[in-house]
Amino acid sequence: xxxxEDQIYEGKAKKVYKTENENEVIIFYKDDATAFNNIKKxxxxxxxxxxxxxxxxxxxxxxxxxxxxxxxxxIDERSQLCKKVTIIPLEVIVRNTLAGSTAKLLGIEEGLxxxxxxxxxxxxxxxxKDPLINDYHAISLKIATREELDNIYAQTKKINEVLKKxxxxxxxxxxxxKIEFGKDSNGKIILADEISPDCxxxxxxxxxxxxxxxxxxxDLGEIEDAYxxxxxxxxxx
Length: 237
Hints:
Distance between the termini: 32 Å
Order of helices and strands: EEEEEHEEEEHEEHHEEEHH
Shape: globular
Number of strands: 14
Strand content: 25-35%
Radius of gyration: 17 Å
Helix content: 25-40%
Number of helices: 6
């Protein structure tokens, strides 16, 4: 087990530990679950194990497709060795199908497939509940430059294209997802955090059954089973 004194950060779903290499960290996936900006809290059995495995598969896939991430290797079933990055305080959200709060906000029935994906950004600040902002906010607040945003959007577009095809092969619709980026020791912007059912809406293509954290948000039950189903399908690809 990692030493408590080596812990440098703890978030809602993960802990981060320093290593002997100043440019590398260990990320440990927890079973804790939160929703609605940390209002709803709970635990999903084996979530950390499942999300770590799912993220490992996806980040290796993205690497094969020319997208650099912070992931280096798996240490154990809950832990990954990753490049240390300075997180850019933006959540980048991709919507391929309208669902959840956005469908409600726009008064459109959940499930509308979009001809063109919607890209959104929110300001990562828990005390403000991660407000939705636009490019002008990000630039004016010096969160990112125009060039950095263009880089992030270009990477996001490619990530979405790769993941839509990947999940399609698993008979899963990639409804929407959230990603984060960070700068490595050389200042290069790379994908960080995770991609899992915690931060992506995944629906079975045939039944439209939700295979993601919406099962926790909406008290639908069978949460662990849904995560296991996603892992089982993508492991076979």
